[in-house]
Design a protein that fits this description.
364 residues; alpha+beta; Uridine Diphospho-n-acetylenolpyruvylglucosamine Reductase, domain 3; Vanillyl-alcohol Oxidase, Chain A, domain 3; 3 domains; five-stranded antiparallel β-sheet; 10 helices; 26% helix; globular; binds flavin-adenine dinucleotide
């Protein structure tokens, strides 16, 4: 069995698809009695074997369903964010933070952290959970900031090591009907971070793209609602429905699947950098990189955010998530070369007071 990274392979001794929290508890108890590891798996979109095991693999997609109440949604851990959004939008509501890609599971991203374009305002998905249903030591329990707060802190960002999330009460906020996406070209990484700090946007993220003389930078500032003026420096605008904006990766994914790039190995490097050191690390990393080090469909993302209240992430204050999302395309750097580059990036980030986003691909 592989994951989206396509680098690590494991053959599970057993695969179970529980359909309820009590079935999860039963599977965990049985595995513990046999001394076998149990690893929950959402859709396996982590990139270095985090969701893989040679013990018991729990396919959490057996737990689905989303119920919307007053200002909250109760989501089963195996539901995807697409399914959550499909349930909340008819009520004019949305989770405050959505990942750029909707086909990830609630349990998977809460176990990772879950960063999105609104994370400069709302923090991570893991920071917007009111309570969690968790199987710990074979027993189903509920935890929240006031009930079993230690467990609540251990499972959010805990990658399944401290309990299996079976359900989550997700905070909801009003959803806009339409959004205005504004492209703002930036001079360099420092300028990107300045725009992210100063722009009054509901959603903002930035990319570095290959150009004739190295890399060019652009910020995407997204304004919710009608009649908003594009921020200074905007060169292009596009109006979209909120759902189409949230689902913006779908056409690219379809193209990557058709090109075969989606199935190639994805040695992703992702680090949280302290904001004051971020531009220097980003510039020097990109300065030493060619497009072949990124791969044909690789992407570089830069996102300043708030982490607040998710201790397992271990991120610095005022973090910037620098994502070097590599694809090992034919004719580009090899997987071992890309993994070595991720290791070097993580070592550099740690030297500057940063840390990893642990769904990345870093050996050792
Ligand atoms: C195309 C793409 C786009 C992405 N975009 C973003 C983004 O915008 N923002 C972002 O933050 N991340 C993003 N990610 C990374 C994503 O957060 C991780 O892949 C994450 O692992 C979620 O994927 P998953 O649901 O498939 O979980 P998996 O990869 O299956 O699991 C992730 C980890 O959580 C554990 N786990 C899974 N389910 C549970 C559970 N119910 N209880 C306890 N532990 C569990 C697993 O054991 C594993 O350690 C993206 C990934 C891809 C491939």
């Amino acid at each position: 069995m592989r994951d989206f990274g396509g680098i690590v392979e494991r053959s599970p001794a057993r695969m179970i698809r529980p359909g309820s929290a009590s079935e999860v508890a039963g599977a965990v108890r049985e595995a513990a009695a046999q001394g076998v590891d149990v690893v929950p798996r959402g859709l396996g979109h982590s990139t270095y074997g985090q969701s893989l095991t040679s013990g018991v693999s729990l396919d959490m997609r057996g737990l689905t369903g989303v119920e919307v109440g007053a200002g909250q949604a109760a989501a089963a851990a195996g539901a995807t964010w697409r399914e959550v959004l499909a349930a909340t939008l008819p009520h004019g509501l949305t989770p405050p933070v959505l990942t750029d890609y909707l086909d990830l599971t609630v349990g998977g991203t809460l176990s990772a952290g879950g960063v999105g374009g609104t994370s400069h305002v709302h923090g991570t998905q893991a920071g917007n959970v009111a309570s969690l249903d968790v199987v710990m030591d074979g027993d189903p329990v509920t935890c929240s900031p006031t009930v079993r707060p230690g467990l609540f802190d251990a499972v959010r960002g805990g990658r399944g090591r401290h309990g299996v999330i079976t359900g989550a009460a997700l905070r909801l906020v009003p959803a806009p009907e339409r959004v205005l996406c504004c492209t703002i070209p930036c001079r360099d990484a420092e300028d990107v971070l300045r725009v992210q700090r100063e722009v009054r946007a509901d959603d903002v993220t930035s990319r570095a793209l290959p150009s004739d003389d190295g890399w060019r930078f652009e910020a995407k500032a997204v304004l919710y609602g009608d009649g908003r003026e594009p921020p200074p420096g905007t060169t292009e605008t596009e109006e979209l429905s909120f759902f189409d904006f949230c689902d913006r990766m779908r056409p690219d994914v379809e193209e990557l699947v058709a090109l075969g790039e989606w199935a190639r190995p994805h040695p992703w490097g992702m680090v949280f950098l302290p904001a004051p050191r971020a531009a220097a690390v980003i510039e020097s990393t990109l300065g030493a990189m060619t497009t072949g080090d990124l791969g044909l469909s690789g992407v570089i993302l830069i996102k300043a955010l708030r982490i607040g209240g998710v201790p397992m992430l271990g991120a610095p204050r005022d973090p910037v998530l620098f994502s070097v999302l590599r694809t090992a395309s034919p004719g580009c750097a090899s997987v071992p070369e890309m993994l070595a580059a991720n290791r070097a990036l993580l070592d550099r980030a740690r030297g500057e007071g940063g840390t990893r986003y642990a769904v990345d691909s870093v050996p050792g």
